[in-house]
Write a structure and sequence with these properties.
Blueprint lengths: L2 H17 L4 H16 L4 H12 L6 H15 L1 H13 L2
Length: 92
């Protein structure tokens, strides 16, 4: 199977999934699974295991906690006080 056909399948499925309102991250995952099924050279169970193993990373856990800490700082007013403090130290 040529790369052009695989690329057309990937792009076509991705555009259709995004057009029906699926979030982009899930659309990319499902489009990749569609190519895996269409190509037939890789076992889809192995692909799912690799995706889970890639997400099961200690360093990736820092991202949602970083966002949570930022939300808490904004809600409590700490971020504005930090910006005011930095402006007082260095000025404009």
């Amino acid at each position: 199977m040529t790369f052009e056909v695989i690329g057309l399948v990937l792009a076509g499925v991705l555009v259709v999934l995004i057009a029906i309102g699926l979030p982009v991250a899930f659309a990319i995952i499902l489009a990749c699974f569609a190519v895996i099924f269409f190509q037939g050279s890789v076992n889809p169970v192995i692909a799912a295991q690799r995706i889970y193993a890639g997400m099961d990373s200690f360093s990736l856990m820092a991202i949602p906690f970083f966002l949570l800490a930022g939300s808490i700082m904004v809600a409590g007013g700490l971020s504005q006080r930090l910006i005011d403090f930095a402006n007082a130290l260095v000025g404009r």
